[in-house]
Amino acid sequence: MDVRADEASDPLDRSVTRLGQRIRALRHAAGLTLVQLAAATDLSHSFLSQVERGRARLSMSSLFRVATTLGTTQQILLAEATAPPAGSTPVLRRTDDASASAGGGTVRALAPAGERPFDPLEYTGTSRDLGPYWAHDEDEFAYVVEGRVLLDLDGSLDQVAAGDSAFYRGGTRHRWASADGGPYRLLVVKQRLAPDAG
What we know:
Layout (H helix, E strand, L loop, with lengths): L10 H19 L4 H8 L3 H8 L7 H10 L4 H7 L18 E4 L2 E5 L8 E8 L14 E7 L1 E6 L2 E6 L3 E4 L5 E5 L5 E8 L7
Helix pairs in contact: 2-3
């Protein structure tokens, strides 16, 4: 999805621009060209160029591939795109958010970059399509803030509603969608694993 921007007037466009700038910085630090990053992520280099300039938004699955190639996670990249100005309070304002498209909805970081043992995210959407499974090493907690969600954990389907929650261990295949086509809002807290000492 292309996001044309008057960056001065739209906070969402500012977050897309910051995310693109962070991806470019990490790509340069890794010594990769756009063509090499494109080949490693199965995305076109022209699309990645648009992303780096803040003129296109990555889906969560594409952001996952880019983050993995650059040695980080999509959650950390989203959080880094919310970085508040130096000397500001630790409060993250709604207008500071960084988001990506995910399964017919959006996901946004709920905390700026920083050292912590977890990453909080908000998923919103209306799509009834469960889409592909996600699986990762980190444990995860999900809480339904509003709406009704169809939650699939390793093939076990449950309908969960506002106030319901689920915890699942790393390695659990998971996905979710709107249970009834109405809007939902899901708070997801993902464990952040310590980097390998390697």
